[in-house]
Amino acid sequence: MPKKIRLGILGGGGDSLIGVLHRVAAHMFDSYEIVGAVFSPEHEESLDFARAIDIPLNRVYKDFDTLITEEMKLPESERMQVCSVQTPNFLHFPMAKKLLDNGFHVICEKPMTTTYEEARILQEAHRKAGTVFAVTHTYTGYPMVRQMREMIRAGELGKIHKVDARYYQGWINPIIHDRSKRSTVWRLDPEKAGISSCMGDIGVHAFNMIEFTTGLQIKSLLCDFNYLYDDNQMDVDGTVLIRMDNHVKGVIRASQVATGEENGLAICIYGEKGGLRWEQERPNFLYRLSDTQSLQVYRPGHQYNSELALDGTKLPPGHPEGIFDAMGNIYRGVARAIRGEAYNSGEFPTMTDGVRGLNFIEATVASHKGGNVWVDLD
Ligand SMILES: NC(=O)c1ccc[n+]([C@@H]2O[C@H](COP(=O)([O-])OP(=O)(O)OC[C@H]3O[C@@H](n4cnc5c(N)ncnc54)[C@H](O)[C@@H]3O)[C@@H](O)[C@H]2O)c1
User: Fold this and answer.
1) pLDDT band at 203 (very low <50, low <70, confident <90, very high)
2) How far is the CA of 87 from the centre of ligand 1 (A)?
3) What is the mean predicted confidence (pLDDT) over 323-352?
4) Nearest alpha carbon to residue 82 among 165, 17, 29, 26
5) What does the pLDDT look like over 145-165, one tens digit per residue?
6) In whole angstroms, what is the distance from residue 195 CA to residue 233 CA?
7) Which residues, including other chains, have CB under 8 Å from residue 345's CB and lie 6 or more apart?
């Protein structure tokens, strides 16, 4: 049994949304051990949380810079090998950059940075570091999303011609209509979230899902945002027309004010030989549509699935795979990469996905602000 990988956590404290997902994912395949952290900007809060989850306190640092300084003093055999960045968006770039510059592997939440320029700087730092870098577009870790990717790669849909990804949430509806409430949410603060709320937070997942499953790149887009109020600087809803390679066209729809919607991510890919449809709120069903045959439903765990999908399934068919499993699969892929073991490129999103994501977010803002014009991606 290889030794556990020494993992440091940045953000993801007891008050956070996403921290528990990362911690469970890291432990799912017994590959990681959390050896230290900065869970919060308040040291006492970090220490309290470390006590609550029983992490040794001597490596719970007062801030990120201290973490780097102190960890670099340790022998390599004890030092954190990988750090997972789970803070609000504006901290991803400075943290990930310094980690790479000091030779750490990095797992980074999305959006990878707050600007495309930062993303490209990070890409260069990563090239120099040569370490493993993963961006946690969690949904790519679901077995049925992996199955979708593998079926498309195997040509089962033939030539792709239409894509449709939708990510609808409603949680900003109770907040957006009250100006004082708006200012309490970091996702509506450009200083903390970056230039976009809705596209930066969830539209970018939909974008990534399209490129992950089809293997094609979005070449240009036209975006129309809704801000709901003139004094609100951040989009809370948007519709994006997209053009990809080879006459493939489609749409990305994202909303944080789709009243009553929970986490409604859905993706449909249509080709000359058939279509595939997957919905995040029913993740164990992958629908295959055909002109000539009855509807087929793929389910996780069955031997008819691809190797990549089966690798992401732990229990026999009928035991639902959920969001924790999806993130666990991503962490397992990263562990394999850190250990120098063989892995499938579909096991985790990379720096390239992170850079593409920022290219997408900035293009949507440029398109909307330019008067709903077509904008090319690099
Ligand atoms: N992959 C996904 O599906 C997914 C889902 C939700 C959130 N996210 C991303 O995860 C990140 C965090 O989102 P969240 O909803 O958990 O945010 P959150 O506000 O709930 O939690 C942020 C955490 O970061 C900590 N933090 C803030 N400043 C810090 C600092 N200077 N040093 C150390 N810790 C600090 C806070 O104390 C808190 O524990 C965001 O980038 C978000 O886009 C990704």
Assistant:
1) very high
2) 4
3) 98
4) 26
5) 999 999 999 999 999 999 999
6) 9
7) none
pLDDT at 100: 98
Residue 114 belongs to some domain of the structure: yes
CA 23 – ligand 1 centroid, Å: 13
Domains of the chain: total? 2
Q: Are 163 and 266 in contact (CB under 8 A)?
A: no
2 pLDDT above the threshold of 90: no
> Three-class SS of residue 301?
coil
- Rounded to whole angstroms, how far apart are CA atoms 130 and 74? 21
| CA 154 to centroid of chain Cα atoms | 25
327 DSSP assignment: H
Single residue among 86, 112, 138 that ends a domain in this structure: 138
- Which ligand 1 atom lies nearest to the CA of residue 45? 37
First to last CA, the chain: 43
* Ligand 1 centroid – CA 113 distance (Å): 13
Q: List C-alpha distances in Å: 39 to 12, 66, 99, 112, 151.
A: 6, 13, 16, 19, 40
* Shared-domain flag, residues 246 and 365: yes
Cα(218)–Cα(157) distance, rounded to whole angstroms? Answer: 19
pLDDT at 373 over 90: yes
**pTM score, whole prediction:** 0.98
88 lines ligand 1 (CB under 6 A): yes
- Residues 241, 181 share a domain: yes
Domain match, 213 and 281 both: yes
Per residue in 249-282, pLDDT tens? 999 999 999 999 999 999 999 999 999 999 999 9
In one-letter notation, the amino acid at residue 150 is: E
Q: Going by CA atoms, what residue is nearest to atom 4 of ligand 1? A: 18
Quick check: CB of 16 below 6 Å from ligand 1? Answer: yes
pLDDT at position 313, please? 96
Bond into 300 cis (ω within 30): no
How far does residue 92's CA lie from ligand 1's centre (Å)? 10
Pull the structure tokens for residue 152. Answer: 């498309």
- Spatial neighbors of 239 by CB under 8 A, at least 6 apart, are 223, 224, 251, 252, 253
* Residue range of the domain that includes 114: 5-138
